[in-house]
Amino acid sequence: MNDAEHPTPGAPGAPSQYEAWYAAPRGAWIAEREYRLLNRLLQPEPGASLLDVGAGTGYFARRLAADGLQVTGLDPDQTSLDYARDRAPGLNWLAGDAQALPFADRSFDYCWAVTSLCFVPDPARALREMWRVTRRGVVLGLLHRPSRLHWLKAGRGGYRGARWDHRRTVTEWFQGLPGNPQPRFGWAVFLPGGGPGARRLEPIIPARLPLGGFMAVAAHH
Q1: What does pTM read for this prediction?
Q2: Which residues have CB under 8 Å from 120's CB, separation 6+?
């Protein structure tokens, strides 16, 4: 996998390839844009417990732990979990299905899922499970269909087999959840090439503009 392809949890590929992408300049830039947006929407408190659903190699779980959260990483792929555990043995790593989380109600303060639900057959069910096991809130990072990224990358490389969502569809996932949560949206990665021009322009494009390839959505109890 070269720097032109974005690795997404659930897509084919060795764990070392995912980590190599995040270490490359473009990958590191995209990951930083995604992380900042997700954090801004969720606003987790330091010391809070967080479940990373579809943690993959643990890249974001390690970032969250470095920011002071008590992180548990969950993924269905044992190879990825073994890799994640080797990189961060101090965190909790468990095998599990996002659609049937192996935890009691309100077990965590927050749930976090970055592009992993793009490969889940029933993302609405996965969201219900995430909402069930949290006390404070959830945040999802999704692939956004009305975007340049979709036009360039859909069906290719690490995106092969991924679902690209619309805002209206994701809004429907939240309907009927206990407490009637009102999801808040934000977008990033408007210019997915990641070159010097993109890096200059991306910070001044409003995150509320629904054209980015990465769509984040958060809701709080």
Answers
A1: 0.93
A2: 10, 54, 98, 99, 126
